[in-house]
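User: Hey, quick favor. My workstation is busy. Could you predict this chain's structure for me?
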Amino acid sequence: MAAPSKRKEETTILKKQIFEYHRSDEETKSIPYLEKYLTISPNELYFKLVYAKALLYRTDLEVPGNDENIESRINKTRAIQSNYNKASKIFQENVLHLEKVRPRDPNLGRWYYLWAFSEWFSDNKEKSIKLFQKAVKLDYRLTECYYNIAALYESLGQWKDAELFWRKYEKAEKELEEEE
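Assistant: No problem, here it is.
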């Protein structure tokens, strides 16, 4: 009988630490706690999403410098890319699951928004555009989605589409200001 109570105590301590780091915008420091928590409770949908967010906002991976040798730059770039790919995969599995089990979840748009960034940083620009569109459809207050879509279209050389989304961004921002 002691084992379940010990497990509950351990998960409570881990949750407290994870939330403390997230409240103070130190997601990177929460990663080992999230990994341990998910080992104990692997089916916790919310904590999987929090883990993906922590990977997305991760600050402990070294950025390659121009003065480094090519092998070092490649290794650092691969580590960063692998991290974004992992975040993207976790978001994909769990945001889609969340949408099925809680289609009216008030944070669903925000999770799509974060997933879109992980795809963008994984160099999946077209997928990122679609996810930003879904995010703003779910939560109209995420007007920066239009801004990001416009920037993505510009990076793809699709100037007419970019211009359309710059206008949508300006209009949505104006409407939000009027609403407040």
